Amino acid sequence: MKDPTIRAAIGGEPPAKPQFYVAQSPGREAWRMFVRNRTAVFGLVLLVIILALTLYGSLIYGGDAFDIVWAPHERPLATPEFPMGTDYLGRDIVAGMLKGGGPTMAVGAAAALITMVIGITLGALSGYYGGWVDNLLMRFTEFFQVLPALLFAMVLVTLFSPSLWTIAFAIGVVSWPQTARLTRAEFLKIKELEYVTAARAIGAKNKRIIWKVILPNAAPPLIVSATLTIGVAILFEAGLSFLGLGDPNVMSWGLMIGANRDYILDAWWPVTFPGLAIFLTVLAVSLIGDGLNDAFNPKLRER
Amino acid sequence: MTFSFILRRIGYGLLLMLGVVVLNFLLIRLAPGDPAVVIAGEMGGATQEMLDQIRADYGLDKPVLVQLGIYITNIAQFDLGESFFFNQPVAKLIGQRIGPTILLVITAQILSILIGVFLGVIAARKPNGVLSGFVSIFATIGYAVPVFWTGIMLVILFASVLPIFPVEGMQSVRLRDAGPLTKTLDVLHHLVLPAFTLAIIYLAQYARLSRASMMDVLGSDYIRTARAKGASEKSVLFKHALRNAALPILTVAGLQFGNLISGALLVETVFNWPGMGRLAFDSILRRDYPTVLGVLFFAASMVVVANILTDLSYRWADPRLRGRS
Amino acid sequence: MSIFVRLMGAAAIATASMAATPVFAEGGTLVIASNQVPRHLNGGVQSGIATAVPSTQIFASPLRYDENWEPQPYLAESWETAADGLSVTLNLVKNATFHDGKPITSEDVAFSIMTIKENHPFKSMFAPVEAIETPDAHTAVIKLSQPHPALLLALSPALAPIMPKHIYDDGQDIKSHPANSAPVGSGPFKLSEFTPGEAVVMKKNPNFFIEGRPKLDEIIVRIIKDPSAVLIAMENGEADIYPFMAGSQEIKRLEKVDSLVITDQGYAAVGPLNWLAFNTKSEKLSDVRVRQAIAYATDREFITKALHRGVSTPQRGPIIESSPFFDDTIEPYDVDLDKANALMAEAGFADGMDLTIDFIPGPKEQQQSLAEYLKSQLKKIGINVTVRAAPDFPTWAGRISSYDFELTMDVVFNWGDPVIGVHRTYLSSNIVPGVIWSNTQQYSNARVDELLTQAAVELDQAKRKELYSEFQQIVAQDLPIYWINATPYHTAYSTKIKNPPVGIWGTMHPMDMVEIDN
After folding, report:
1. What is the DSSP pairing of strand C497-498 with strand C515-516?
2. What is the pTM of this model?
3. Is residue C39 within 8 Å of C47, Cβ to Cβ?
4. Tens of pLDDT along C133-170?
5. Nearest-CA residue of chain A relative to C395?
6. Which residues of B, range 103-162, sit inside 8 Å of C by Cβ?
7. ipTM exceeding 0.95, yes/no
8. How many CB pairs under 8 A join B and C?
């Protein structure tokens, strides 16, 4: 119960344990559960390492991942300066790995952001107001859900010329229905709880109720969903780049895989290393998501 | 589950399809780029008169809404137009590709459900055991690996390094005139790697889902009663528990169908599988808009049908819901 | 091929051969691996190698060519050119029939050539054809508005397929006619199956008008877009022949396979030039000295020996070096960075400039590699190059044909006679916005226009050569294009093949003499 106004209105005493009410700040409680979960911490550490390397690569590491620096298809460890070898043009794979992470994750994060914004907004409105609003919005959501995601995203990206922005936008547009559904379900559940009906009884405005009461309590599953969405978005971006629909003028891991795919019989490393990078990033993100999920739902965790 | 419910559901599905068609058609027509220039480029060059003739031939000179109207009327008669690139009816092109895609998708779906559920059920028996841990790890990994990367690695490993499986395609070109048994075996031989690649992602999900679901059910009174009555462990697991745990699995399977089609696209590209996904991809790159529209329409209708079926089977499976309309 | 499939295949063959026909010395199936997708199978209204390979098996043409560029009888058993060069008479064979049994007459020839003239993208092939008279069923007289020395080459199988008038002349637009995907031709092979994007299956034409041919029972074109998959297919015998192979790694890899022969023969008539094109109307590139500076900065030897590992050959003019019209005295622009820098300074760009370079998406070694190479090389003369990659062919083609570019890599074929494939790039009359592979450099030189127009009608071979020489000298100075190398097309074929298709047209020629030892 975060809002002092409402607490005061009810009579000052916090009610005895309604379902999602925690005595301490829910964030801190969840954090304590989180750090006890070894795989979750592993995921967090992994992600921090990857982010650090990416930042280093994007901001500090010199040169351009597109520069041709050596003979093509140099094997890993064959030359000390290029421990991961070179690709089909003679570009340094290490540079590609360090500099490719930024765009890959930026697109993933941006797409996830778009997904969350659209999804939460529509889901919240739908779940809270119900009635014809709900009906209309749900039809709209279903409409986007029947479109095969990758296909439609490809069409969008090709029509409007591939760039980091169009890709993030396209991924966001095809991914929001799931978030909307989840938000709606949460809102439907929480809407019926005591403190919400109480808030309405004292005349709190709808907007306030949505923002200050329901949303914070719906936050846990939404945060988990957001983390998982980032993972999905990264895989999605990698897929698009692999197919050749990535931004061809920005180095990303998916682009490295797609560009070097033709030569895989003679050079496996330009495809394998970026693939591993994508895998580790998505793994880290999903481990964190799982950890958060378990942390927010301690009862379920005991199973 | 009355007749009127089914009818309403179908009617609503049709409305959805109409919306899909309109949206995609307008999107494609209003985007930058001139299809006539593309067609001329595919021909190998042209002159100004030829460009104009191309526009007239393909109806590109009419106003957009008129083109939309024509397109919708045609779709109602099952005419999906003609491919810009191949000059053949889109319906025919899709018809040639639908079989391979369905084969791939259904095989992958079955594989992933069977293996996944099996793993999950076994893991549910001992929630803290080794297998359960393995299932968790496998589930997380399977989810995080990019499917096209897995596919490429599998091709290199099992078609080049160890030449056990064919490197691409659905049939050996030389066995085209062979007998039906040979051809079937040949197709199955080609099917292994792609189906398995596609199945891996969802396998992990089903393993996890069925484990959670089974654990839920195994703790219930119903199961304790069955055990007390002396039912064998195998019977408890597979006859009693699984049936009740099936519902969420079924739901997810239905919802996943749309994702399966997207995954199939990537797998078809990696393995040169002659399916709809590859047709769509190639057509998008060639700006062959009628084909792209046709595939989008077709894929969306498959998802709508799958949703309706899932909905219906859901209500059928759960007797609590049957009463409602 | 895996043991599994071999067993299955053996079982199938055993069963089949028990069925009936005795096994002749002839016969067998030839599998061609291709990574191009044909739109349809009628080479008369569609240019490009993807269509030409199957089209030349299904359709016959008036003439065919041997390895020495000499025209040979095909549907025309003899031909005469009038003294004034304004008409060419074709005397057709009497016994040729289409695959549906109907005889081939001069009506079909007349219809076909006029159709190609109207619909094929290469306008210059039959532009001077005014009419074709058909005095009797087996004589066709082509009437020309001016002498047209390129005509005989234009009657090759790849460029002049004879189509059945009784099928095509029904009022539908030929370019999108359904018969293009289910063609009835007169060539050594009939179409059995065409699965768009997958395969073209052609079976022996038992009523082919040349006795004893074709030797093969079946030709299958198998379309595989993934280069690695093609290589594996060739290595394990799933495919027998792989033409138009241009990647140095592919070539080097297949050269090591004992069961395969690699040759660079078979592409003389194609004349594929890989070049750097300039947008001559861009203010940065309108000064010829800048273009020459870029030419002097580029090291062709490095490109062909290092980037292409020695499999490609340098080229230095609009006409390919193997053509009889090539003039080897033109300025080669051998690499000279000092000269390049001096020219840049002269033109007023001593501080350098920024340029973007485009390239065709597709074979990376020929296009993208060179763009990247130029990026690092041109830095040395002060030019800051940004490589602009296009996601697909239509995007690139759209940009170039609307002149939205500064530099671009491109590959354009000569197609045998300069009239067919060379003129289109340099004639100012061919500056057509929206059309790719026209004069997209917007180059205009009145003397060049004159020379090309004259050379198109000059029947005297020696005089023609002179005209083309002067043409080459001028464009080598004006440099609307800087020619770099010939696309190193090679063919890999199985040792089981006899009489492999390595003539001037390669696989774009009827393969009725090819045999395979299946």
Report:
1. antiparallel
2. 0.86
3. no
4. 999 999 999 999 999 999 999 999 999 999 999 999 99
5. A161
6. 155, 159-160
7. no
8. 164
